[in-house]
Structures are given as structure tokens and as C-alpha cells.
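Extended Data, panel c. Modelled sequence:
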Amino acid sequence: MYHSRRHFFRQSAQRGAAALALPTILQAISTETAQAETTVNLAEPARIKPDSVVRSLPENMVWGYFGADVTPVSRIKDGDIVEIQTVNPSGVSRTDPEAFYKTNNLPIDDHAKEVIAIMKNVKPEPSGIRGHMLTGPIYIENAEPGDHIEIRILDLTLPADFGVNSVWPGGGGIPELVKQRETFVYRYDAKRRTGTFIDGVEIPLKPFMGVMALSPPAETGRVSSIPPAFFGGNLDIKHLTKHTTLHLPVSVPGGLFTTGDGHAAQGNGEVSGVAIETAVNLTAQFIVHKKSGLKMPRAETPTHFIAVGLDKDLNKAMKQALAEAVQFIQTELGFTVNQALSIASTGVDLEISQVVDQVLGVHAMIPKSIFPKKKFGYW
């Protein structure tokens, strides 16, 4: 099992378990290929056979919250690959879900029927907590408080050929700007790999999960999925696309992983309040790292390490992201504090994840290329 903090993001050579072996096709992916494939061909079939599938059925959904007392819908082993189907009912009314599809000339196909069934049968949290429509939670065997779970994002597919973005009074990064609510349906072009709602605009499709979370500690009780926190949640980091990795600290036995809020594309900031909200099916491998001591989410792409800052004050979120980046460069890469801060100032980019989810997000992009003498194994 993996204990080293210094090699936090690297697969331990000691983990010889067959359950952790990725398909050969993934082992051969180059950095360039991984970057190119973050844009998904809608017609491309999934190439990875999961150990299990969690379907987007009413009984597998939780509407808007995380909690240690939420009953798991699936139980998996350390190292398992799981396909998790999600829906994103943005724009769909609970009282008349069919109306959205009729108004926008969208077919009520099998996926739409799933969304309609979920909206009619999944109940909001009784205390009034509100948030996203989520799939889960999933119990990961061998995960205990003090550990962290590595989530390798192997595939992201779009089961519907459209997504939704909205603007509304009082929402987004400029809440006083909008006077009337308006919803835009982005239709996808599978060949061009773009989405558009109006002639002359094409947004490249780069799907990711807006929400990936473990449970908060039991003493916290149930919490809304809207504000992100140290256990993950609504991070809205657009770089967490196919062939990237998210690390989250475990607070309760089994971790209890929940996901949803799929996005087909999003700009840094998510400034209208939402992205292109869409159904996304996530295929991921879950690996438990024992006693790692991780306190905040961290991530990795083929080209970057990502440190995360979260706070209701954007300045404090920035400082936390910077502090996390400096700590990572110091402790994981072997530099002094002063050297790490100099490296951060000259080679690291701070980006705003989102400014619309109560707790705001800043992430630090640490390029691997600025450390030419270090070898970074990936998957």
C-alpha cells in the first residue's frame, strides 16, 4: 500500500495488485494524445470495460446533498473501475418535466425518460437543503478517515446531444446585470465536437464533472452540494477532463463518493452561474492511499499538478491555492519555501475555478515542464 507523501501523485511500484492495472490502451497514451482527447467525440463508444455500472435510476440518485448517513447505492473494491451514469436536469421542471423537451423541440428519448422519472420520483432533502441531482454515494472498501482516494478519470461520455445554460436576475458573477431569466439550449455537433445555441458561436466540448465529492465528517451532518469544501464537491475545475486525476481526503469509512453536475464546457469562473449543463457518464478507477494525511483536494493532468483554494472570500481562496501550491512544490518536489514561492511566482498560473457557488474557488496550475530534471510517471 502507498504511504509516501513525497511521491503523493505517483503510482507506487509496490502496488502489484492486478486490480490496479489499467487497460493497455491507457498505459500507452502520450501527453499529446491525452490533451487532444479531452474533447470527446460524441459518437465514440466507451473503450473501457468497468467492473460495475451505477445507472442513473431514481433509486441511485440523491438530490442536492452529501452526508455520512446517506445509504450507499453501490459497494466497490479498492482499485475497481466503475461507470457512473448521471443526469443534469437543468431547465427541467419537477412539476411538468415533459414541458422542457416539448418547448425546445427535443425528443423524449430513453435518456429524457430517465430524467423525467428522476424528477417525478426523487425527493428533495426533507430539511430544505438544495443542490444538484447526483448519483451515489458509492462505498469504497478499505477507505478510512486519514486516507485519501485517488479518482482516475478514464472516460467521460455524453448520453444526450444537448446541454443547457441559463442567466437569471441576481445570479452569476454580475448579479445586477440580468433583468430577465433566459435559458439557452446548446445543441452538439458530434463531427465538429462543438456546442452552439446561436449561429456564429461554437463552443469546444470538453466534458467534466462539476461535482465529485466524498462525504463530509459524520458530525457535520448533511450539507448542500452547492458550496465546495475540503472533501470535494462542486469544485467546477474545468481541467478535470478525461485522463486526469482527482485526490480527495476521506472523512468517513468507505469515503462515500457522489458525482453529478456534468458540464459539456465551461469557462474559468462559470460566470453566468452555470456552464453548459449536461448529462455526463463518468468511468473512473478508485484507488485508496492509506494514511496519506491529505487535507485538501489536489489534482493532476498529464501536463500539470493542480492545487486548490476554497473560501467565501476570493482573496482568501487565492491565498489558500498559493499556499497549497508552495507546500506541494516544497514537500513533494524538494525545494525550500523561498525557492517554492519563487517558482510559483515565475512559473505557476492561478486561475479562478468559479465565483458563483457561495464558497469560491481558485486553483494553481503547476506545469511539470518547468522541472526538466524530474521524472513524473503518470498512470
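Helices lie at 24-27, 31-36, 97-103, 110-121, 314-333, 337-347. This feature is highlighted in the accompanying rendering.
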